Amino acid sequence: MLLLIQNGTVVNPGDRTELKADVLVEDGKIKKIAPKQKVKADRVIDASDCYVMPGFIDMHVHLRDPGMEHKETVETGAKAAAHGGFTTIVAMPNTKPVVDNSDVVNYVHNKAKDMRLVHILQAGAVTRGQRGEELADIESMVEAGIPGLSEDGKTVMNAQLYREAMTLAVKYDIPVLSHCEDSNMVQNGVVNADEVMEKMRFPGISNSVEDVIIARDIMLAKDTKAALHLCHCSTKDSVRLVELAKQEGIRVTAEVCPHHFTLTSEDIPGDDANFKMNPPLRTKEDVEALKQGLKADIMDVIATDHAPHTAIDKGVGIKKAPFGIVGLETAAALTMTELVDTGYLTIMQMAEKMSYNPARILGLDKGVVEEGKPADLVVFNAEKQYVIDPADFWSKGRNTPFAGKKVKGMVMATIVDGRVIYEK
Ligand code: DOR
User: Fold this and answer.
1) Where are the beta strands (DSSP E) in 335-393?
2) Does 262 sit in the ligand 1 pocket, CB within 6 Å?
3) I want to staple 82 with a disulfide (CB 3.0 to 4.6 A). Which of 152, 288, 417, 422 is the partner?
4) In this structure, which residue's CA is closest to atom 6 in ligand 1?
5) What's the Rg (C-alpha) of the chain?
6) What is the tally of helices (H) and strands (E) in the chain?
């Protein structure tokens, strides 16, 4: 099967080149990248006015399967990913049961393989049942192919236990993906701790709830030499701490979510739980620091923290509703609109933060557009404007604060191992 993607601008973060060329794909691999190729292909995609980029890799997705399939399943999550231009996603382990042994890892991986949509890598929990008391069956999960360890949804508060997990992560050569939140300090907080939120009488979560654990985890990474990846950084000091750690040569990388670089707590219109996520929407100062951190390549990754919930779960107001918003189908457009179109990032940096850097952190031979490499690609039209409508989502979750937002940047096709799994 020959696939020809014609007339696009190929963005390759592997050698940082942008080139107007056709991309010929055969047997799941990129066969040839060159202008004006004359071949009789089985299928042709016209990529005029589009970028041809490495398929996006989302290091932070909640699939809710097993156990909460009414919110999302491996299949609906994979379809949402394809619709959003993602070709690989990492699923977080806070399911029911928790992914703390190889059986649950295999369950998700087998389901994903049978579907042949996007690549799904299931992360393993750090502790049994995410209870923070004893380590999970890490060795068996590594054998089953986990890409990393994560207690996402919470922090392992016992620093010694986390240190032991980091030591094992070094032994097995996998990263530790850290959710940074001091569970003693968070109390009953539901939004950012600031004056605007106080006026609305919502209990707040201070920046320090996140920052103290970021600082702790950086020190543990220094101690153990583990590869530490900081999930969903939302504070201005997270950027400073990551910069300092990198200057010291500590193995740390950091991700920012689109909602944290797009919205502040002032955008919360009232008691609407579609604006409730953890960490919460912060202040203008935090947002500007995150954008500057992304621009300066201190912050390495853009990841979604895709967290689907039902309308009923979210319909009970900010104080009672669960944390989380969906993100797979809005991430690329928000990155283009808020960061590339505004001059914070180049299109190359977008490709680095959404594909190349995640691939390097996860140890995947992906994230580039090069001959001989797997044909995981996205055709992206950076000029196309539209209004976000949750009714268009392929995810089961409609819980987004971005309904009605005008954005620029549309995924036109998603290709996994040479197969077109989505085309507009
Ligand atoms: O908003 C969030 N939702 N943050 C998390 O860390 C967990 C996630 C979820 O699982 O719903």
Assistant:
1) 377-387
2) no
3) 422
4) 153
5) 20
6) 14, 18
Beta bridge partners of 3: 25, 43
Question: What number is the average pLDDT over the span 130-156?
Answer: 98
Nearest to 402 by CA among 303, 338, 332, 327: 327
Distance in Å, CA 158 to ligand 1 centroid: 21
What separation in Å is there between the alpha carbon of 324 and the centre of ligand 1? 5
Ligand 1 centroid distance, CA of 387 (Å) = 25
Let me know: does 83 contact 393? Beta carbons within 8 Å. Answer: yes
Give the position of tokens 């042709």. 44
Strand partners, 222: none
Tokens for 327, please give them. Answer: 């993100």
Residue among 275, 399, 389 at smallest CA distance from 326: 399
* C-alpha closest to that of 81 among 53, 109, 62: 62
* Index of the ligand 1 atom closest to the CA of residue 309: 11
Distance of CA 160 to the CA centre of its chain: 28
Extract the tokens encoding 242: 């990551």
- Burial pattern 247-268, b for ≥16 Cβ within 10 A else e, equals eeebbbbbbbbbbbbbbbbeeb
- Prediction pTM value: 0.98
216's tokens: 């702790």
Neighbour order of strands in the sheet with 252-256: 149-150, 176-178, 228-230, 252-256, 301-302
Residue 323 CB–ligand 1 contact under 6 Å: yes
Domains and CATH numbers, the chain: 2-51+374-395+403-423 (2.30.40.10), 55-362 (3.20.20.140)
Instruction: Report which residue type is found at 324.
Output: G
Are 150 and 121 in contact by the 8 Å Cβ rule? The answer is: no
Length of the chain equals 424
Instruction: Assess whether the C-beta atom of 324 lies below 6 angstroms from ligand 1.
Output: yes
Query: Do the beta carbons of residue 69 and residue 265 sit within 8 Å?
Result: no
Q: Is the CB of 330 under 6 A from ligand 1?
A: no
- CA-CA distances (angstroms) from residue 319 to 182, 274, 323? 19, 12, 10
Catalytic residues: 305
What's the pLDDT score for residue 413? Answer: 98
CA angle 103, 106, 111 (to 5 degrees): 130
pLDDT in tens, 282-296: 999 999 999 999 999
Q: What is the pLDDT of residue 102?
A: 98
The 10 Å Cβ neighbour count of residue 67 is 13
pLDDT in tens, 217-242: 999 999 999 999 999 999 999 999 99
